Amino acid sequence: MKPLISLLSLTFLFFYLHPIPTLSSADYDASTTETNATDFIRTSCSATLYPDLCYTSLSGYSNAIQQDPASLARIAIGVSLSKARHLAAYVSNLSREADYGADPRASAALHDCFSNMDDAVEEIRGSLKQMRQVVGPGSESFRFQMGNVQTWMSAALTDEETCTDGFEDVAEGAVKTEVCEKAGKVKKLTSNALALVNSYAEKGTK
């Protein structure tokens, strides 16, 4: 019997010195809150044209979004703005290099694209500024402010589409492919942001 007693004693000693970690109520609440927030983002993104991209681009902001549709729309606009700025800078650099190239069509398309993207950046920036000032849902001011955001985001999406349309007559090549691929992603992010804005505006005016 002594070996058995010794084994039981060692087992007791091990668990006494190495207690099993437990999940505190605070940890549980934080985990539940984060899960609820990511579920809210996933559900809201289902109303967009590109739900997978919507979720992956916004799920990292779940702590800031929580389950607030206004924060969701605002952060979606911010993500769109960031990508549009990067694309505008990228196209600007390419357009300067293209001035010394042999393809006048590519040069013209890049300059036009930069002009369109520059306009889109300003429109998205205006949308984000307006979203930060939006009053509570249900009021006439809310409808007016959200109307501004919807108009500017729609205009930005049109400008982004015009950017890629300008490359239709440009010969296939690395520059055309890269610009159109990058612009394509920006268009999807802007489209998603607009869909979330529309959803918030619709719920806030009921």
Structural overview:
There is one protein chain. This protein is mainly alpha-helical and 206 residues long. It contains eight helices and no strands. Helix 3 (51-58) packs across helix 8, helix 5 packs antiparallel against helix 6 (104-133) and helix 7 runs antiparallel to helix 8. The relative contact order is 0.13.
**Class per helix and strand makeup:** mainly alpha
Count of extended strands: 0
Oligomer description = single chain
Approximate helicity band: over 70%
Using only C-alpha atoms, the radius of gyration works out to 25 Å
Indicate the mean pLDDT. 88
Distance between the termini: 77 Å
Helical region count? 8
Stretches with pLDDT under 50, minimum 5 residues: none
What is the percentage of strand-forming residues?
Answer: under 5%
Shape designation: elongated
The biggest beta sheet is recorded as: none
- What's the helix-strand series? HHHHHHHH
Brief digest:
By secondary structure, the chain is mostly helical. Helices cover 81% and strands 0% of the residues. Helix 3 packs across helix 8 and helix 7 (140-165) packs antiparallel against helix 8.
